[in-house]
C-alpha cells in the first residue's frame, strides 16, 4: 500500500468511535508506516480524531521503540522540535502525544519525562535550571493533560522529579481548563500541600471537556477540584 493510501486509511480509522478497534486495526501496519499520518491526526481540530490519534501515537511509537529504540527517540525529538519556537510551528498535540508515548513505553518515559516537566518551568541562572516554559495557554492545556496522564500511570517518576510543585501555580491560571487539569493532576499525585489552593476552586463552575478513560466528557473545574481533594484526603499510596 502506498504512503498516500496508508495516510487516507489511518485518518479514516481515526474518525471511529471504538478506540480499541482503531488500535487493533493500526497494529496491522508496521509502526513506522502509521506514525506520519498520526502526526497529522494529533493536530486535527475534530475532537474525536485528535484524541484517537494521541492514543494511537502512544501505541505506535511504543511498538517502534520495542524493535528500534533509536527510532522511538527520533519521534520524541520530532515532537519536542515542534514545540521549539525555531521550528516555525505551534506544536499542537505534541505534549499529549509525548505523554501517551511515555505511558506506553517505560524506557522512553525514563529518558524524556524531564523534558515534559521542563515545559512547566522557567529557565534560570542556576546550574541545570533549564526550563522550557510554554506560554501559550492552549499548549498548557495539552501539557497539563499530559502530566495528568502520566500521573495516572507512572506517578512516581513525576514525584521523584518534583513535578507536583510545578503544578500549583497553574491553579491560578486565567484559563479554566488549565486550572481544572492542574487540580486533577495534583489529586492524582496526592499532593497534600496543594489541598488549600485546590479548595479555592470549589466555587469555580467553569466548564471544560476532559478526555479520560477513552472518552470525552463535560466537567467543571469545581468537580475536578472536589475529586482531587477526595484523592488527597484518602491518602492512598502512590504506586
Q: Which keywords apply here?
A:
single chain, 239 residues, mainly alpha, two-stranded antiparallel ribbon, 13 helices, 62% helix, 5% strand
Topology:
Layout: H1 3-13, H2 19-26, H3 31-41, H4 47-67, H5 69-82, H6 94-104, H7 106-118, H8 137-153, H9 155-159, H10 163-167, H11 176-188, H12 195-199, E1 207-212, E2 215-220, H13 221-234
Antiparallel strand pairs: 1-2
Helix pairs in contact: 1-3, 2-4, 3-4, 4-5, 4-6, 5-6, 6-7, 6-8, 8-11, 11-13
Unreliably modeled segments: none
Approximately how much helix is present in the residues? 55-70%
- N to C succession of SSEs: HHHHHHHHHHHHEEH
Q: What percentage of amino acids are in beta strands?
A: 5-15%
End-to-end span in angstroms? Answer: 43 Å
Class per helix and strand makeup: mainly alpha
Number of strands: 2
Strand order, largest beta sheet: 1-2
Largest sheet properties: 2 strands, antiparallel
Shape: globular
Kindly provide the radius of gyration, computed on alpha-carbon positions and rounded to a whole number of angstroms: 18 Å
The DSSP helix count reads 13
The average pLDDT is: 94
